[in-house]
Amino acid sequence: MQMTIALAKGRLAEKAMEILEKCGIECREMSGNSRKLIFYDKKNDIRFIMVKPTDVPTYVDHGVADMGIVGKDTLMEAGLPLYEMADLKYGKCRLVVAGYPSKKDNSLTTSILRVATKYPEIAKKYYAAKGASVECIKLSGSVELGPMLGLSDVILDIVESGRTLNENGLKIMEEVCDVSARLAVNRSSLKIKAGVIQPLIERIQCAVEDS
Ligand code: PRP
User: Fold this and answer.
1) Cα–Cα separations (whole angstroms), residue 146 to 63, 137, 151
2) In degrees rounded to 5, what are phi and psi of residue 122?
3) Is the Cβ atom of 52 under 6 angstroms away from ligand 1?
4) C-beta 158 within 6 A of ligand 1
5) Which three-class secondary structure state does DSSP give residue 171?
6) Which fold would CATH assign to domain 3-91+180-210?
7) Check: CATH 3.40.190.10 for 93-178?
8) pLDDT attached to residue 105
9) Is 135 a residue whose pLDDT tops 80?
10) The pTM is what?
């Protein structure tokens, strides 16, 4: 029975392929410079689709892909009912709130806090849990510019090395959660294709433990 795996293009892709190769899955065709979007491992009857990270949960939720590999931040933001079957323990970073702590104590301000972020859903939930009203300003990248140019008071964003914050004079003010790459599985596929999906999940879990 054929299985489809959605892989996030970009910084998580190479490492995802490394893990899959360890599980005996043929990924070489994908790791070159090809602009193709669909690849096959004929031996294992697996089809791969290369998509934007934010689209991985969508393909898996609709069952077009049986499983996908993507960051926890993207899964949280999508908020879809997928099964998260493994923490792949790479692509580690943190979701944080950052800004200029000295400018004003943003947590005590009476005016509504303006939060620039690529993650408006995560931000809304995070601040709702604290009982704070915020205005989320959705950006697609270079979020750090928000407080620098007065578009927002703070950002809610991922931090990996901390370099982008440092080089733009911003400081971490709150830690939201840790992030890493995850294996997300479609709920129906897990039942209907259990015979092929379960063994692969186990192989992936073992490959992660061994690395
Ligand atoms: C991400 C994130 C930060 C940066 C953090 O952006 O939004 O800007 O990486 O990494 P660092 O802590 O190692 O500096 P990305 O590189 O994905 O680009 P983008 O701003 O275009 O989204």
Assistant:
1) 36, 9, 5
2) -65, -45
3) no
4) yes
5) strand
6) D-Maltodextrin-Binding Protein; domain 2 (3.40.190)
7) yes
8) 54
9) yes
10) 0.93
